[in-house]
Amino acid sequence: MQVIVRDNNVDQALKALKKMQREGIFREMKLRRSYEKPSERRAREKAEAVRRARKLERKRLEREGF
């Protein structure tokens, strides 16, 4: 993947790269490089959901002052 820098505006190119990273484009490209078995996909998605839930719970507890 490449981003073209126009008129030596590196900041704008970096902004585009960061936006793609936030949207998860790089992660999705990595996942689509090779075939993923349905069972592996389910396991990965479940692990991601558990990670997200733990992170949200941690943030909630931090906000409440525990």
Account of the 3D structure:
The chain has 66 residues and is an all-alpha fold. The protein is 74% helix and 0% strand. The protein contains 3 helices and no strands. The chain has helices at 10-23, 25-32, 38-64. The protein is flat, with a radius of gyration of 18 Å. It starts with 9 loop residues before the first helix and ends with a helix.
List unreliable stretches of 5+ residues.
none
Instruction: Spell the H/E element sequence.
Output: HHH
Helix percentage range: over 70%
| Count of beta strands | 0
Structural class by secondary-structure content: mainly alpha
Average pLDDT works out at 91
Oligomer: single chain
Count helical runs: 3
Give the amount of beta strand, in percent.
under 5%
Gross morphology is flat
Rg for CA atoms: 18 Å
Largest sheet: none
How far apart the termini lie comes to: 43 Å
Brief overview, please?
The chain is mainly α. The protein is built from three helices and no strands.
List keywords for this structure.
66 residues; mainly alpha; 3 helices; 74% helix; 0% strand
Reconstruct the topology from this structure.
Elements: H1 10-23, H2 25-32, H3 38-64
